[in-house]
Input
Amino acid sequence: MTTGQSNVSPQAFRMDPDETTVGRRGVLLVLSSPSGAGKTTLARALLKADQNITMSVSATTRAARPGEVDGQDYHFVTPDRFEEMVGADALLEWATVFDNRYGTPRAPVEAELSAGRDVLFDIDWQGAQQLADTLPADVVRVFVLPPSIDALAERLRNRAQDSDAVVEARMARAVDEISHWGEYDYVIVNRAVPQSTAALTAILCAERQKRNRQPGLAQFVGSLNSAD
Ligand code: 5GP
Output
């Protein structure tokens, strides 16, 4: 296992005129699951339902699957380019998954946080750990479980893009990924997409109301007290 980690000190909130003086510090919402548990569907549903969260687009050395768009699904890069990004401290975290390298570009995340917006990450447990170590006050970790191991196997088999060997490797890795569920703040058993999406939306909504994510509260309350 190869992982990377680096320091970051983003200007993590801004005072938003629409939110009076309360301000807002962005949530870094990390979604992990074994592949086939429905994480991508949930991520898309959340992005559609909420305009204030954007998806972090990872860099990867793996080949694009049919239908995947460079710059949208991933930044598809060569191993040399990936190494360059690591050397330039351009990645917030990185890991090797299925013999390919994956990493989170730092600059877009810092830009979103500075603008008071939230960022959604579809990354594995290694990346989740690294982000939580680097930005403990900002990261919220959600783990998505399949309703059963049979359902997971079925979903993986139905993914026409992958060969039998790849499906087998993914099943083995799924068991490993699932073993990390206890490191997450929230766990969603994905029995039905609408309910799971509602749960994910509720988590984001509640996390936004946390006291430490409303940095101007003391000032705001002061203004309430001096009003009379
Ligand atoms: P896939 O190749 O199926 O798109 O992704 C394989 C695994 O890599 C998934 O578990 C996904 O969450 C994870 N992954 C994707 N991007 C990143 C990343 O930037 N960092 C880390 N640590 N894992 C990632």
User: Anything to note?
Assistant: Confidence is low (pLDDT under 50) at residues 5-18. The longest strand covers residues 91-97.
